[in-house]
């Protein structure tokens, strides 16, 4: 994200970005430190509201295909077969 400011994060590259962060955050050492604090009080049994479970706007966006992946156009000339334009 620092290398490409303003670039839209799609579902596909978002999974890669957050997957890398998740593996760092879920290390055995971090999990062990989380259980060392036993004084979790007061415990909130309902920390999430119904609105927290609604669909994300990320999943409602149209997929944008970069030009390098766009299918090549074919040009038709009179009396000739279809040829691929490079």
Automatic annotation (TrEMBL):
It comes from the Eukaryota. This is Uncharacterized protein. The lineage of its organism: Eukaryota, Metazoa, Ecdysozoa, Arthropoda, Chelicerata.
